[in-house]
Design brief:
This protein has a single domain, classed as Roll (2,3-Dihydroxybiphenyl 1,2-Dioxygenase, domain 1), CATH 3.10.180. The protein is globular and about 55 Å long. A hairpin with a 3-residue loop joins strand 2 and strand 3. Strands 2-3-4-1-5-8-7-6 form an eight-stranded mixed beta sheet. By secondary structure, it is an alpha+beta fold. The longest helix has 13 residues. It is 18% helix and 27% strand.
Length: 181
């Protein structure tokens, strides 16, 4: 018999951007949310911003994939269905991740093997509404202390200019302006 998960918050909310450099400048430069981890492959970038202990907001930027811009004011209904990438729920340790994976399997739910992303280990599954979910635990708490932009949590080998500025100076020279929709 498996145990009930002891959830410890939202690991990360994964959104999509078509301009990672501007996203780094807005989230790190304007909002002051430290960039704490990056993943980069030839197909995508995945950058994480610190919003509290083990709580991040992450963005995907896909290579060679035009994104149709969608914006709407908060709290106003819109007949177009806005989409985000996935919600990642935080677990306290590897044992809890294994236990949850078994619990999902025991309930007849499809779930991936455990995926090692470096600083995060995760499983992926969907809810009954088709919403993409992930359960993760931080192998290294990337939200503890100041980011080490040259450390193991920054795996994008082709980083955006904003990350290069953070590496070189710890600050950003420019940030984007925004307006209400």
């Amino acid at each position: 018999m498996t145990t009930t998960p002891k959830w410890s918050g939202i690991n990360h909310l994964a959104l999509v951007t078509d301009d990672m450099d501007a996203t780094v400048r807005f989230y790190a430069g304007v909002l002051g949310a430290p960039l704490v981890s990056t993943v980069g492959t030839p197909d995508f970038r995945h950058y994480f911003f610190d919003f509290g202990p083990e709580c991040t907001v992450a963005f995907f930027e896909y290579a060679d994939m035009p994104i149709e811009t969608f914006a709407k004011p908060a709290g106003i209904p819109d007949k177009r269905a806005p989409q985000f990438d996935h919600l990642s729920l935080n677990l306290p340790d590897e044992a809890a991740l294994h236990s949850l994976r078994q619990r999902l399997l025991d309930a007849g739910c499809e779930v991936t093997e455990i995926v090692d992303h470096g600083s995060i280990h995760s499983v992926y599954f969907t809810d009954n509404n088709g919403i993409a979910l992930e359960a993760s635990w931080w192998v290294r708490d990337v939200t503890a202390g100041s980011p080490d932009y040259d450390g193991p949590d920054f795996g994008d080998t082709n980083p955006v200019p904003a990350l290069e500025e953070l590496r070189a100076t710890g600050t950003l020279t420019g940030t984007p302006r925004t307006q209400l929709t």
